[in-house]
Structures are given as C-alpha cells and as structure tokens.
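## retry 2 of 3
previous attempt timed out at serialization; input unchanged, resubmitting
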Amino acid sequence: MSATSVVVMIALFVVTDLVFAQPKNNNTNTDTDVPIRFYCGSNDAMSETTFSRNLNSTFSQLRSQLSKIGVYYARAQNLEDGDGVYGVAQCRNYLLANQCLACFDVAVSAVKPCGSANGANVFLDNCFLRYENYDQFYDDPEGSLDVAVAPLAVCGNESTSQPITNFNRALQGLLSDIRVATPRTTDFYVASTRQVTGGNATIYAVGQCLANASRAICKNCMSTAYNNLFSCLPADEGRAIDVGCFMRYSGIPFFQDNQTTNLIPFLSGVSSSKSGLIIGVCSSAAAFVLILALSLWFWRRRKSKDFAEDMSELQGTQSYSYEDLKKAANNFSEEYLIGRGGFGEVYKAILDDGNVVAVKKLQVRVGAKKEFINEAKLISNVRHRNLILQLGWCIDGSELLLVLEYMSQGSLDKFLWGEKKGTLNWKQRSDIISGIARGLAHLHGELHFKIIHRDIKSSNILLDNDFQPKIADFGLARFYPDDQTHVSTRFAGTMGYTAPEYATRGHLSEKVDTYSFGIVALEVISGQRCTHVNYDGSEMEYLLDQAWKLYEKGIHSKLIDEALNPNEYQEANVIKIVEIALMCTQSPASLRPSMSDVYLMLSSEPTLGKRQMSRPTFVNADRRIHIGGSRE
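## retry succeeded, writing output
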C-alpha cells in the first residue's frame, strides 16, 4: 500500500464535555447522543462530486442494514470512477433499531465538516462510523492506518459518591471480567453490572470490539481500554475509545437490567458466543413464549399491574389491533397461510405501511394472560441475528397473536431436498452451519438462564434474503438449570435429529441441541435427509453411518453434495466441518463440545488436527438406536 493511498487521520476537534450533559432516564441514556471523538482524513478525494455521490450511497446502504431489528453492524462500499468509499457502522447491542438509526444519523451529520476528505471516524456513546477510500481496514481495523488513532480515555467530571476504595474494587473486577469475556463472544460484545460493596450503587459497563476485528485484535484492544479507563478513577463514569473497540462504565444505567450478558461461561476458560437473543418463530414461536411464561411463573411470581400498562412496557415490540392483523392477513385466509403446527397457524400479513410480517395465531386460555404479560417482558429486550425476531403482539379475547419477522426464503429443508434443491452454493452452506452454531451458543450460554431448543432440524431453520440462518419453532423449548448435568423429562422432539440418551431415557441437557446441530450440519453438507436409508449390502445405512464410514476411511470429503461445484470449496474446510459434526454426535453426551466451542472451531484454523472420536449413534423413527448398520 502506498503512503498516498492511506488516509492519515488527524484530530480536527474532540468533544469530551457535551457527552456528559446528556439527559438520562433511569433505564437508558439513548435519548440523545453526541460525538465524543471525531477525525477527518488529511487527503482530498480526486473528484469531490464523485466521492460525495459514492459517500452518500454508502451511508444509505449502511442505514438500510442497521434499520433491521437485531442488526448492529453494517458495512458497504461504492467504487464508481475510482473514488471508492468503504464504510462500516456499528451500534451498541442494547439499542433498539430506531435508537441505532438515530445515533447513526448523528454520526453522519458529524462527519459533514470533513467535506471532500477521503476518510473519517466518529465515536459516540451508542455507535461508531468510519469510512475510507481503501478497504484494508475491513480485516485489520487497527493496522491499516499509517498514523493510528491514539487510544483515549474520556472521563466524567464528577467523582463517585460511593466509598472510593469499594467503588474502585468493584469497578476493577467488573472491567477485568469484561476485558476477558468480550473477545470470547461471537459478536465481541458484553454488558454487565456490579454492586458496590458497602454502598447502594450499581456500576453498569459494556465492552465492544468492531465486528470486523480478529479475536487477537479485540483481545489486545480491550486490554488497552481496560488500562486506560483506570486513569478515570474515581470518576463516576468513563469511556475508553480506540478504532478497534469501545469500553464504558457508569453509575447511571444506560441499558436495561435484563440486557446483561452472562459472563460465567467466558470467565471459566470456555470461550463462547454473543449477545442478543430474540424469541419468535414462524411455526411455533407463540408456544415458546407461553412455555417461558408458565415456566418462569413458578420461579418468580410478580405482582400484576394493569393489563394495558404491563404490555406497554415490552421493549422493542408493539401492540397490534386484531382487526388490523386480520385485514393484513386477508381474514386469515388459506391463501395467506404459510405454516401450520400443533399450536396454531402462521399467516403472511401485509401491513398498511407495506411491511410484510408473519402472524402466529394461537388460542390461549384467559388465565394465562397475566403470566404471558409478565414474562414476555423478559424476552422482548433480547435479540440475536440467528434467531427469528418477535416484532409485536395482540391479545383479543381468548386469542394470542404474535407478529414475527417474515422470512421470504422459507426453510432450509426446501433448499436441501425440496423444490429449491441444489441452489445453495458452498459459501452459503458454510455460513448457514456457522450461523446455527452461533444462535445455539447464545441460547445455551449468554443469558441469565439457559434455553434448550429441543427440536433443531432443517425445517426449523429459516433463511433471510442473504441466506443467513435464523433458528425457529421454539414450541418445545424449555429452561434448563445451570447447576445440573441433565434433567429427566418426557421426550419431545423429532426422531432422527434427537440425541439417543434423550430419545430413549429422557436425559435432557444442552448437548441434545449439540447432537441435533451435528445432524443438521451433515444434511447441509450432503444435501441428504438424515432419515434417508441406503443399503450397504444387507446393512441399513443412514446419513450418520455414511459420514462415519467415510471418516474412518479418510475420505469424508466425498460426503459433500454432488450438486456443488468443486471449485467453490476447499476440501480441508469440508473435512473440518464433517469432523465437527461427528464430534457433536458422539455418545455419551459428555464427549460432545459445547456450542460455543463448536462456533470457535468453525471460525478458527482450516483443520482441527488429529482428534480421538467415538462412534456416533443414531435413533431412527422407531426409537431404535442404530450403530453402524446394527440395531439395538
């Protein structure tokens, strides 16, 4: 890279006082947002007109991506006539979509004074925006600058009112945990709180690295941020700003209490996933919500409030009228029916504003309303890119309706052996496998409670317009206690995808989802149903048998779907994913990796090296355990 092609960043102005004058409420401080630091590039574009046109187009694309619920990171580029513009934007994961867009709009306004300068950075409490005329910073956000933006601590103007020793001790522990946990999550983001001993205060803190950073860059950046923030003590709030990461603490809440990350999995040496679960599905999401409500009701009874007041407190969702939904779904006609399950029907609905959504229509007994209201609050705040989004709700008489994200591409199974068979390329398949792992890792390890899906299968994986996967159908999902290796319960799931210890003995743990993931991964690779039977001589051979035999022979790349172009994939990558899938289907369950470890393996080196694996077991539709052609 030539020196002239690199934007040398210089500080034109730094706003460090206005940010502390922001109006805050008791829940968040997202009402307003102003720049904390701001930089313009030192070089001018070749053509101001062309560059400005490309820049505006890039901003428009970034804004469009961030407008989607659950999307916090966006990147876009426009390369017309040599004056290319590459842009990235990132919001904090505690924001609602409209709050993210509001922050982004402020960031865009802040860089207007840069004029024709061919690069800019702007840092805000709630978001970050950067654009350049080269793309190297996508892969290395720190190393691509000839003159790196110096890491900075921006401290509050007031000292804490708490005992300083206790405050410092609590803050040090909290920031240390965030420093360790953030690089180990899938989206490089954590939010947590800590009580100050001997006082009545709570410290709120977040850590976030740029999504395009590597894990090593995130780790180094968070360590620098951690060290810099100590210069703020004993100030009651502080920010650490770098081009690769952001860390913030405050004695005033700036995110909801139920938006925190469970740090325990990341501090015990087990790397894990990332934050933002959303619960909602296009086939049984409503049932999942009810199960959450009824289950948690026995754990925590809350005092009921007025119905309308309670429902209005749901974060990130809205109330819809029954008549409006009925009209949008054409009177819930067969023409608009897109799914039917044991808990109700799902309809496509076109709202008055033109947005297309899915409406789950479920009959609910009147006595369940209070439980649903109280516990739906719990899930209304959490979002994740690989889980179907719940957009809103409606209760009318005995009917409960959920408004859900509409997935126009439909379910994964249609692309593997249905009417769209053979249309997925290898990159799409690889991304789908990785996305499912990321979603499950979040369900298992990043909330204050663990959720087991219990019915992971290809028909319950929906694809968005970019063929990114979203886990759906939470009708069988249930909470799981963290302090037990397994619980005994009656079997519920789909034979062929479920783990043998659960199908035959009712032993349920998060490793049941791990097993199901392994089966789905093999289906994605091969394009075959897991229950399809081939005959090897006189022996029955299911997909899992076939994969294991090919693995034993060292030719497991032969499992890949013949519809794929061999030039699209590297054999080593296919081999690695097959081996990970087989690791997930081992018995006993203790041999299977956690889903956070699965995601890390999928994201790491192209090969796993030599590993000792046990022969997997498969349970067919008759609930018979099938081991390498023999049945027990």
